[in-house]
């Protein structure tokens, strides 16, 4: 268990932010998951005081760092959010290099399981509350957002209502999570179809997203001068 007082307040961006509060971070919270190769583990980071905490589900990316792409990553982000009043719940997805698992054919990056991890967390918030000391009764289950970086951005968009059609066999995935009311997509995967490079097609061959079905409000952040071969 970790406690700290996060002091960065966004002054460089000149964005008004409420004063930070001390936070506590607890991991791993283990949720048994029938049929999953391993149990679902997550980190829970919350302000040390306060009630009716809005929830942010944080989905990690798929970089080369085993620790970043797991519940161990994104400390500056989850600490900032928690210090300003949010409960941040971040799982280690099956695709994490930390676990060393190989995805079954047709399920590259365990991309469907990534979305299902977030649904499992929402289904087991009672267990999360009772496992983390001092958290019982403090989560506001009516205010849930999902945030994701890179491959986690794909996870977020699928939960927010985007659909995906696998160009190899035409199978479609469309499973929006209505308990999620808002989203943040950080450097997401982007368009599929003719907009994706050959390198990208080899890395995410399942991917051809349709964002026209994504009706849940979301903040999408990307670099318009970035050049990424995907």
Give me the secondary-structure topology:
Layout lengths: L1 E4 L16 E10 L8 E8 L5 E7 L15 H9 L3 E5 L19 H13 L1 H7 L7 E11 L1 H10 L2 E3 L6 E2 L8 E5 L11 H6 L5 E2 L7 E4 L9
Parallel strand pairs: 4-5, 4-6, 6-9, 9-11
Antiparallel strand pairs: 1-2, 2-3, 3-5, 7-8, 7-10
Helix pairs in contact: 2-4
Description:
The structure is a single chain. With 230 residues, the protein is an alpha/beta fold. 20% of the residues lie in helices and 27% in strands. The chain contains 5 helices and 11 strands. The longest helix has 13 residues, at 111-123. It is globular. The termini are far apart.
Brief rundown of the structure:
The protein is an alpha/beta fold. It has 5 helices and 11 strands. Mean pLDDT is 90; it is low at 5-11.
Question: Strand percentage, roughly?
Answer: 25-35%
How many domains is the backbone divided into? 1
Number of helical regions? 5
Strand order of the main beta sheet, please? Answer: 1-2-3-5-4-6-9-11
Which structural class best describes the helix and strand composition? alpha/beta
Q: Outline, from the CA principal axes?
A: globular
Indicate the percent of residues in helices. 10-25%
CATH level-1 class: Alpha Beta
Provide the CATH architecture: 3-Layer(aba) Sandwich
The description of the largest β-sheet is:
8 strands, mixed
Total strands: 11
Q: What is the chain-wise order of helices and strands? A: EEEEHEHHEHEEEHEE
Radius of gyration: 17 Å
End-to-end C-alpha gap: 38 Å
Query: What is the typical, i.e. mean, pLDDT?
Result: 90
Low-pLDDT stretches are 5-11
CATH topology: Rossmann fold
């Amino acid at each position: 268990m970790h406690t700290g007082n996060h002091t960065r307040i966004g002054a460089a961006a000149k964005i008004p932010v409420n004063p930070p509060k001390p936070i506590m971070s607890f991991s791993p919270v283990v949720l048994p998951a029938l049929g999953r190769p391993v149990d679902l583990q997550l980190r829970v980071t919350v302000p040390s005081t306060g009630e009716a905490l809005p929830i942010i589900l944080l989905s990690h990316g798929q970089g080369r760092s085993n620790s970043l792409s797991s519940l161990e990553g994104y400390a500056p982000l989850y600490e900032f959010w928690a210090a300003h009043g949010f409960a941040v719940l971040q799982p280690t997805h099956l695709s994490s290099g930390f676990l060393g698992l190989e995805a079954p054919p047709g399920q590259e990056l365990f991309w469907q399981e990534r979305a299902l991890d977030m649904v499992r967390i929402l289904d087991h918030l009672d267990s999360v509350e009772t496992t983390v000391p001092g958290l019982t009764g403090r989560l506001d289950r009516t205010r849930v957002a999902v945030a994701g970086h890179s491959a986690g951005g794909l996870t977020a968009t699928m939960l927010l209502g985007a659909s995906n059609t696998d160009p190899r066999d035409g199978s479609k995935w469309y499973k929006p999570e209505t308990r999620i009311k808002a989203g943040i997509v950080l450097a997401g995967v982007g368009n599929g179809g003719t907009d994706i490079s050959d390198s990208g097609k080899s890395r995410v061959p399942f991917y051809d997203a349709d964002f026209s079905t994504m009706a849940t409000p979301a903040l999408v952040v990307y670099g318009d001068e970035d050049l990424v071969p995907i």
